[in-house]
Amino acid sequence: MIPKYFVLCFSAGLFSLELAAFQNPDLPIDPYGPVLLSDDGSWCWFQDKRAILHEDKLYFSGVTADGKNTLGEWDLEDYSTGTSVISHDILPPDDHNVGALMIRPDGKILTVYAGHGIDSLIRFRISQTPLDITSWQEERQFKTNGRVTYSNIFRLETTGITYNFYRGNENNPHYLVSQDDGDSWKSGGRLFEFEGRSYLRYASDGKARIHFITTDGHPRHFNNNIYHGYIENDQLYRSDGTLVGPLSQNEKSPYKPSDFTLVYDGDLNTRTDVAWTSDIQLDQEGNPYITFSVTKDPITRSETTHTKLGGFDHRYHYASWNGKNWDEREIAYAGSRLYPGENEYTGLISLHPNRKDVVYMSADVDPKNGKPLMVDGKRRYEIFRGESFDGGSQWEWTPVTYQSDEDNIRPIVLADNKREIVIWLKGRYTSYKDYQLKVYGKVLPEGIFTRAKKEKNILFLISEDPNNYEAPWTIPAFAGRLEKETGHQTQVILGEGERTAYHFPGLEEKINDADLLVLFLRRVALRKEQMAMIKGHLLAGKPVVGIRTANHAFSIMNEPIPETHEDWWEFVPEILGHENQGYGPENEKTEVRKEKNQKLLQNIPDEPWISNGNIYLVSPLHDKNANVLLNGTSAQHQEPIAWTRKAGKSKIFYTSLGYPTDFSHPNFLQLLLNGISWTLQ
């Protein structure tokens, strides 16, 4: 089914629904996005849940630039989107006011929200009918005994009680309870009584237990550790099940954050490595795994004037509980603060709810080395999908957005057994009260990678080059997934040296065992011995896969080459079967279409999709017998963009796709997998 968009607008009292077509009408709808879900929305990260995936619909809360609380809907069957306004002119513009969501047992949607410390009211609404965002009961309020912020709502199946955890009197965490699924509320008690303003994230198994992670206070005022605990049967516990004491049932509490299990020691006495909670999820055994950010260059505690002096080096950390202890480590560079004054604000990191080995993050730097991501002279926040293939020690990163015209921040990950979904905010974020943001979403279906019938050794050769489309990001992540999920043995060699005098460390020991060479490299001359090894691989009748810049892999232009090295211009016409004749306009996307339905394109939909990369000019192909699989159209150019052929006895698969975000598109991943499988048959 080709997703369709439609327009429908109506209003009823305080409620309005707007369903709108957001896609570029000149391009086909690409169901694997990114898809614009709302043209005005924002959220903070201390509310849960801000988004819910229920069957084939995704619901998400938001706050518009002028302060309206909203609830959005994304239908994953027909890709229609809608936004219902929950409140008009009640709260000022502030992303902290975003609502928490819960689908009640009767199917009605509950949303609970509060102002950012402006009054003592917790506000809530319930939909009139199940799973319908267009009609709501009147707003009701619960008055607390102090100024409130945030809402986190969780229903426990064993008791039928719904909890709302919020920041309340004296900036400490409190909770309300409801025995009728949010129709009415009563005060529960105070979680901590502590002089700091602790920041908590919560997660529940939905049955009997609610977990939390917490800081000591705001990172502006405390150096901050990270702690974990959980609530069960109105008792508080440390990570290992040690009882801390009964949950407070009144306005007093004997507890403070440090009464719980220390996950990360930021050294409270030293103004470095200042932590802030980001996300928490539970694995299939009910064990928590968490992420948080660490500021390496904080400004002086409580500084409010010289705020431009720090906050340029943040890192993302990951920790998981194995039943006995916490395994904690730094996993990525996070970049600079979003704006001066909130020097600990990052683009944020979010956990996959079903997989401990997958995260999504926002950063304005390369996650691996901290190098700034520049677009037209400005740093830009981009969204990355991270995956670990060794139990969390090392992470590889695939860009979801790339070379964006605006910042991409605050991803939220949702998943079921069919798909993985990320939603995020794109636009201008000047402060938590001043922003203009859109909501985007992207789907990645499960089951793209399948177990190989015969496991082979695959060797990837890549180069690092400003014009080589971030192969050091995309190929290690792809190779890791390929090995983990298909059983093939993969190795990636990143070349070294000047491109006129290039070499691949360890190639001599690895190439003889390679059943397949995959090349994603650009304009390099190799040592003569290493070039002979690649030619020898082909002379032995072994296959080669070429990706994008492989069509000028060994083509050195107008530069002297040392006598010890050589280029190989003939590689493109003789092996890949075409000539590199240039490129389409740099900023033009490419519409991708199947040439014909054939076995090598199995599991790739017939409908066209979009690559954000410009088209390569290659026609007419030298090899008239090449089997063209895909054609691309861009800026009045129509070109073959994927084909197979034979070079001697060697099977060759080449695609000019391979733009960084192609590696987060399931159709491209399926194409690569099919091409690799074909060459190895």
UniProtKB/TrEMBL annotation:
Mind telling me which InterPro entries this protein's record contains? Class_I_gatase-like (IPR029062), ThuA-like (IPR029010)
Q: Which Gene3D superfamilies match?
A: 3.40.50.880
Key word Signal present: yes
**SUPFAM superfamilies for this protein:** Class I glutamine amidotransferase-like
Where does this protein have coiled-coil stretches?
none
**What is the name attached to this protein's record?**
BNR-4 repeat-containing protein
Mark the transmembrane ranges. none
Q: Which organism is it from?
A: Negadavirga shengliensis
Q: What UniProt keywords are attached to this protein's entry?
A: Signal
- N-terminal signal peptide: 1-20
Signal in keyword set = yes
The protein's matches in Pfam families, at most eight in alphabetical order, are given as:
BNR_4 (PF15892), ThuA (PF06283)
Domain (ThuA-like): residue spans on this chain? 508-679
